[in-house]
Amino acid sequence: MTCFRWLSSSIFTLKLRSVIALGLGLVPLYSISAAPKELEGVRAPAQTECPSPEEARKKMTVPDGYEVRCFAHEPMVQNPVAMTWDHRGRLWVVELYEYPEGTPLPVDKRPFGQPANDSNYHPVPDICKGEQKEADGKIPRDRVLILEDTDNDGVADKRTVFLQGLDMACGIICGDGGVYIGQQPHLLHFKDTDGDDKPDEWRVVLTGFGREDTHELINSFSWGPDGWLYMTHGVFTNSKVRRPGEPAEKGFKFDAGIGRCKPLTGEFEVFADGTSNPWGCDFDPRGNFFVSACVIDHLFHMAPGGIYVRQGGAPENPYAYELLPSIVKHKHFRAAYAGIQIYQGGVYPKDTHGHLFIGNIHDNAIHEEVVTPVGASFKAEPVRDFLRANDGWFRPVSTQTGPDGNLWIMDWCDKYPCYQNAKANPEGVDRARGRVWRVVTKGAKPETREKQDMDLQKLGTADLVKLLEHSNSWMRRLARRMLAERKDEQAKGALVTMAKSSDARLRFDALCTLHQCGLLDAALLDETVKDADASIRAWVARLSGERFRLASQHVAAVADGDVLKSTKAEHKAFEGMLPDMDRVELLGKDPDMAVRFAVTVALRMAASGALTANRPNAHDGAHWRPLVRPWNRLGDVLETSANSSDGLLKHGIWMVLERGLAEDSEEAMDGIFSLAKSTQPLSHVLAYKAMRRLCDTRDAEQLDVAVKFCESIQSEAVLLAHALDGLVKGQESGVIKPKKDITKQLAVWRKNDNADVRKQAEQLAVLWGDVEATNALIASAVNEATPTPERLQAIKTLRRVKTDAVRAGLAKLLGEKLPAAVSVEGIRAAADLGGDMFPPVLVSLAASKDFSVRLAALEALSGRVDWAKLMLTAVEEKKVSSAEFPVPVRRALATNGDKAVRDQAFRVLGAWKESSADVKTLIADKKKMALEGTPDLEQGKLMFQATCAICHPFHGGGQKVGPDLIGSGRSNLDAILANVIDPNQIIGNGYENMIATTKDGRTLAGRLVEDTPAHIKLLAAGGAEQIVPRDQLVKLENTHQSLMPAGFGQLPDEQFRNLIWYVLAPPEEGPLTKEKKEMLSKGVEGGEAAKKPVASWYKPDWESVSLWNPQWKVSAPDFERTPVKLSDFHGRKNVLLMHPFAKDKPTVLERTMKLEAGKPHALTATVAAHDQGDWELRVKVNGKEVKKQVIDHDGERWKTVTADLSEFAGQEVTIQLEGAATGWAWEFGYWAEVRVE
Questions:
Q1: DSSP letters of 1005-1031?
Q2: What pLDDT score does 733 carry?
Q3: Does 377 lie in the same domain as 482?
């Protein structure tokens, strides 16, 4: 379950069991031994006994005017993970007892977990109906409850077990005469046909949902305003979603993002791709969709068809070419988000309506945030902590608006905050507690619903329509769903009247309800296209797109494989679609960006059978498709958006154009792309992507189309430069030349007045075999007078040109004395090019004193069998030292496919063990060794730089292959030993060490970061990217091992001790005192040790802090190992690190001095922010604020702030430099220098 696999943002990390990189082992922090272990640090279990429900309620704090009430608690409800309500206002709850391992029972003992071949209803086994004690041990333990407040006094007094026998069920919602439940591998539907609150029949709606990560299963079901059922899904679980009986290859890849389905027809698609492990979703009053996520940014506006940044892996559609961002810049201090609700309940004060309420498991809180429109998307900002539990057991997993209009909060109630805890000690998960809270306005009546005998199912159609006017969104949404299920034509008149109301909210609800009922006609859409509310106009476009899809499905149903019947049906469908197409095209001129984006969504629906993936429509008819050409309807959008820089709008436009290029590139380039000149600067990015897309077809004739387009725009130099840049980038998948000779055209572009055009044309000339251009670039690379950045770029281009001239030039280059960066790039190029002239020079470089050069040379030599043998011979001959041989190279040699290489490596370098057979013993031995000696932290730092830093940032240095290790997995000695010694315990999808074998005999290793039809890209230690064209790939093998080798446990004792203690207690964080070492050395077993404050050993070194700049008095709190004086940070020496006391209490540097009269004076401060936060610097003189500036991490790391003090010349002044919080997330301030001149 997602809520227990997150790590606090106060020690930023990716999911430790998934992000594996060389250096420090990023793996789950759990014991290998039989004895259960508890974690410390921010993932420590709650340090107190669980308070009673009443005690917990009294501890909670909410804003003035609110109070918290308990609706239900243990033993009535235990392990609650998901909730929903039925038409009577009864609360349905999923109890998750099988967390985190899932049932140990075999598949044939899992009533609802066996493979499904049909979607028919089947009888529910009697043993699963209701609560039956005899079922213990015979079926899985998860179940569904119905909780009722029969007397409507605000407290549940009746509990009914509806269903048992589920296994890792995490999603639930009522609908279609029953209840939908998400329980991998299926989406299930249960019906109670006789009304006795026991299920009678069930069916599999969809199948193929994965289970690799039991914290990232399908969850957070929600009915959308368009009638689809939406759900979220985490990144490290692999699903291939499909109808029962369909083969897996027909399924939709679903591993991170939002899915949606139409349960009655079995349709499914990925609505928006990306994020990490989203858990919680909701729609705002105008149908915009938002999700909360973890590890990476916590809040996303998920637009239809959006392809967003993700924690790991790659989207199914590789042709977006850039990923959309989150909508936040702020973070909360502790971060593990679950559950989100956009308040529309009609009970709270108006200033809360539309605000987002997000659960934070680590922070034991509910945060309130506000979103405001920005172009076609939004930005989010923090408002306040709406609820603080002040109790470590409070774990909010779902926050929803209930039938009473109040926020209801489902509380898992467990001492464990993280999946690491549960994995470390599954039996330590509390299975006896659970609470459901309501946050109400102070003094509110106790009722949980409007009427004690409420039953909306008994309402007539007219009354349900009237219910759409209700102030509570819960009522409106339920009415909309019930009307959609009834599809009563008698509702149409009242709904059409409502759709013309003066109230925009009513118009929106009526329009969407008509659509869901199948009663929305073209006439009303044509009338609504002029609606005064932009969000409604946007939905006119989106619903028109839904009609395209329905028409396509109708064609397929009517034709049923009959060609003649298909032709007739296609023409009829085409005629019916024309008004919808015209309407959408008209909206392309809309002044509102969100409306124009909705137009792109509608056209994408017509162009592809799926929003994010490239799929055929239900019927891609040969007759009407050429006539429709959805991408050719984009003209007005392009012209109206020519000056737009909105990322989401540009993404939507491209997603439509991409389909045109894939289907008929020449027609698309001659057609819609003829507007490129007149739609700049928008067309710059579109031209760039179009050229890349044509290259990715790997078809030389498509390159002719690309060149023809470039010729047509060559009078527009900036546009041409972007197009040529796309062609250059497109060659990364392997050089592909146009079919036609373009020597003359390249010569023209190489003489262009625009420097960027010349630069890109020169690169293309080299890549496409121009001898003169190639020789010139070789000369530039070899010439030591060429600036280093230009040399690096030249080498990157040359490495793709496999000619003898390039090889000779590169060999000459590598024989020179070079800057390390140039040597490394040259070595990587040599590894790509191959050739007998390289091994001697690479062997020489393998003895380099520069570790980066040595590592690159050894990796290159180990990548080819013949080269590896020469390298090992050089080791035997003492030309290359075997000491401190890089661990990844050791592993590559020991696992080489050639037996002779393996044998020689064994003889020369000794035995290699991927993992100890007795990890427990090895960890114990290493712990004893680490504690016995005195570590040399300076040597440890050197060792770190030679190993861990090639993948991990740490105190301003290191590569960004893995996460910043400040705090990650280093809370104590036990944790770090488990991480380093056995990194292969659990590895998330996308973070395995992959082995690629190429046609020219190379063996490459790394994690797979791109996998497209044209190429794969591996990211290896040191940040090296290896792109292998698909046509050069012989084999791609998943080793199912961590990218981080397990051989660190074999390091010599002294080196291992120094490394471990440097990572645990680097000098940058203060001296390694006796108390600090004792605390870090303690085991993580449960009991009294776990109850001690984690940072109790740490006391700020105020003497060191005061000496940072003795002229300034420091006022700062003891917070997360600050204040502290760092020896260096991002290239600056002697840096002071501080954090504010509170949101409203800043840190202060204070100095009193006399400013000389008659002279200008200025204060200059050089400061920086943490990678994940920002803060505000305020300069005050004698209490007067003279300067204020937000310090963020965008752009240059170090910011120089200057304040004019001239007005105070001749005065004695007190200067205060405040470091103030802008929110409450990583407000760490780095101070390099402060001076007054």
A1: EEEEEEE-SSEEEEE-GGG-EEEEEGG
A2: 87
A3: no
